[in-house]
Write the structure tokens for this entry.
Amino acid sequence: MSKGARNRTTKTGDGGSAKTAKSGKSAKSGTAAKSTAGKSALGGGGGKGRGRASRGVGLPQERNWGSYIFYGVISLIAVAAIAFAAIQANKPPIDGLEEFGDLKQGHTTSPVKYAQTPPVGGDHDPTWQNCGVYDKQLRNENAVHSLEHGAVWITYRPGLPAAQLNKLKQIVQSNDYTLLSPYPGLDSPIVLSAWGSQLKLDDASDPRVNEFLKMFVQGKQTPEPGALCSEGKATP
Amino acid sequence: MTSRRTFTAAGILVLAAAVAFVVYTVFGGKVSDSSVEAGFARDMSSHHRQAVEMSFIIRDRTDDEDVRRLAYDIATSQSAQIGMMTAWLDAWGLPHVDPAGRMRWMSGHPGHTTVAPGAPMPGMATDAQLKELRAAHGRAAEILFLKLMIAHHQGGVDMARAAVDRAKEPEVQRLARTMVNGQRSEIELMNGMLAEREKQQG
């Protein structure tokens, strides 16, 4: 129940400062754990106290073992349950996920220098890129605007095997709020990006593709919920 | 002895609370990811988004007041309904997409099967049809819009009927029922408008 276990420190974004993810739920369970620990310590102390007192009135000492065991078991179960809940609430959402904070949301028609490749947020073009399949590289500044609308941008290194590329195309055709485009110079064959989050993959059939889509398509990170992914820029 | 009983009661309470907490963490949330309600909210939102898009296109392609008013009605009401369905998914804590496939919740509904991956849902216009609509203007654009929107509404009514038949959540039932009734009457209206315009064109 240490601070390290509760908090997920995230990587530095283009703004420079690291963000710490700490949900209300986890903070609550932390407090609960502390108060339980306090309670069980009190319970133990009370037991001892009674133990001494009972010797005074001549009660058989063995009787206290039952209460020690009773409170011990209850404390153990309670601590285990709270630890389980805390782990459930804090387990890393997706293995290998990188998160970035302090992303600007300004509009500009000038080129923007992004800290991540591909970018996961920051200032962007006033026109968003329409969702869908593209076979040419997109302008970062337009695609970042789509991320702001809750889209997931799937990028691949040119030369991805045809079977994998077809799988990615099918995913984008079957799911709203997704874009697909080649991106030369990626440091892994496939990179999935959402506003503030990124996942690097080697294979299109990695089950984390679906996990990423479920978490981030119009997900909680979306800076402009409800904004559309159509009627923007239709060409690369 | 009283304090001993108090401790015992407190212990049982802590135990019960812990068990309840774990049960809630694991099984909490009443609408499941694979439910009719969740599937309907996702797929109907997607279906509606295209109707909104087509309505905005036609408003730029014709000056005809009746068609522009109809398009305004569809765009605003369906956008608001998308917002309602989006809010349900958020309240249920469920994803906004189902990468395992669209329309799975409708399997077994008379006349419907799961849509193949990448294939459009019933009534949806193709990219080529949308391109054609963007390029047309005046009467030709109106006629194309009405034909596409009639087909779109027919697909929408079928999907909404499946939700009326199967959804358990009352708010989902109610919205789906209003879609069936509203879109049915709009189909009648559009059929009349289409016949009028086709007659004029000869």
